[in-house]
Amino acid sequence: MSSVVVFDLDKVLLGGDASTLFLSGRLSQAPARLVPLLLASPLLLPGSALPQSRPLAARLMTRIAVGGSSGDDVEAVAEAYRRALARKPEAAVAEAIACLRRHQADGDLVVVATGCEEILARGFLAAVGLGDLDVVGSTGRLWPPRVRRAMGEAKVAMLIERGYPPPWKAVYSDSPSDLPLFSGSPRPVLVNNDEKAAQQVERTLGRRPETVTWR
Length: 215
Fold this sequence. Notes:
Elements: E1 4-7, H1 18-29, H2 34-49, H3 54-66, H4 73-87, H5 94-105, E2 109-117, H6 118-127, E3 134-141, E4 146-148, H7 152-161, E5 170-173, H8 179-182, E6 188-191, H9 195-205, E7 210-212
Parallel strand pairs: 1-2, 1-5, 2-3, 5-6, 6-7
Antiparallel strand pairs: 3-4
């Protein structure tokens, strides 16, 4: 059985914020979608400000920005990201993607586990040629109402539910908030963060993580 390697998305594979990059691409494709987004902003802005409702707000934002049938959302989101990346290619972190592909070449099974809303994450990965990866991300739906945030211990639980229990061969994340993930791997890798964060991880794990700076 292949060893499992876990990658975070924002600040690891994607330089910046997934929602912001998506919106820049989508609104350049379809400027008229700004009108319904503005009309929905009294709902979207408070929802995105609260951690508990953020995945639901992101899903609603994506639906409004895309329009049409929800069954086509991943490809529509991917097209928006391709448009945005044509103007801002550095948002796809080349060194991180190269590392991921080396793991695949070595026979490892790569999974992306992210607090980003799952449709947005899948669309970005499709846009950069990684659409075959499994994604464990935050989810939100209006009816029946349900929100799951892939953060901290919940991210570990969601990986286990999807058939990816620890130990993981390596875990790449930008944040000490992923300490529950780091603790499930002999090779925690802290990406694009500072010495203070590395020390925080070391105090909890009792060992220093690898650190990398990727562009």
